[in-house]
Structure formats: C-alpha cells, structure tokens
What does this fold into?
Amino acid sequence: MPSADFERSLTVSRSPAECWGALTDVGTVAGWVTVVGEVEELNHLESYTAVLEDQFGPFKLRADLDIGVTDLTEGSVISFRAKGEDRAVSTSIVVDGTLALQPEGSGTMIHVKGRWNVIGTVATMGSGTIRKKADTIMEEFFTAAEAELNQ
It folds into this structure.
C-alpha cells in the first residue's frame, strides 16, 4: 500500500484573515490543482465532495471523494479527511491533512502537513509513481497559493 507523509510551508504577504478566506474557498483551491474536478460544498467548513481525475499509466482514475473537516480553529487551523474510491479500477484513496496559518511579520506562514494512502489497482504502479503525482499536486497548490496570496 503506497503511502507517505507530506509537509510544506510558505510565507505570503497577505494577512491571516485574507489567507483564511482564500484557502477555505473550495472553488478557488480546487482550481489550483489540475486533478481536482467537480467540487461541491455541502456545509461550509464541515463537509464537501470532490472528484479526483487523473491518468496513471494505463489507468484512468476517477475517484469520488467525501471530505470532512475533522478539526477546526476558525481563522487559523483546519484539519480534514478526504476518502473515496474509483470502483472501475478498484482503487481507494485516503488523505488526512492539516492547514495552519500563523502571522509572520506583516504576512502569514501557511503550513500544510498530512498523510496520503492509495490501495488497489493504481497502487500497483508503485509508490514512486504515486509519490511523484502527490508531489506535483503539492507543487501546484503552493505555486497557485503563492501567486494568489502575494498580490
């Protein structure tokens, strides 16, 4: 079962309140990551659904994710669990993550950490391939966050 921890930080020029507003707008954040398709907010800062779509070698993945907020400190910390599967290729995905904001000088430090797990057919591609895809997702997120939150 391929799985890995992830952690990364970024300091931006916007205030924590401005960052919180952008980073908790699921439509905005979903647009930052190419593998995220449809997103629906069921209850703000509580529950969401999303579709994860990507190509892994010969496998076309389309996983419906249920995303639930597991811990929340309004304005500074949000933890979540995204869990779903693609039955067509017998693959399950679980991501547990935390996003924390901290004032840093006149701006904000954004810190993201968590763990992902992939089980099933796509996992046969090997942990290196899946880790590379996860790294690409993180890079897309942080590149877009930096561009958006340093304006």
Q: What stands out?
A: The mean pLDDT is 93. Residues 3-149 form a domain with the Alpha-D-Glucose-1,6-Bisphosphate; Chain A, domain 4 fold (CATH 3.30.530.20). DSSP finds three helices and seven strands in the chain.
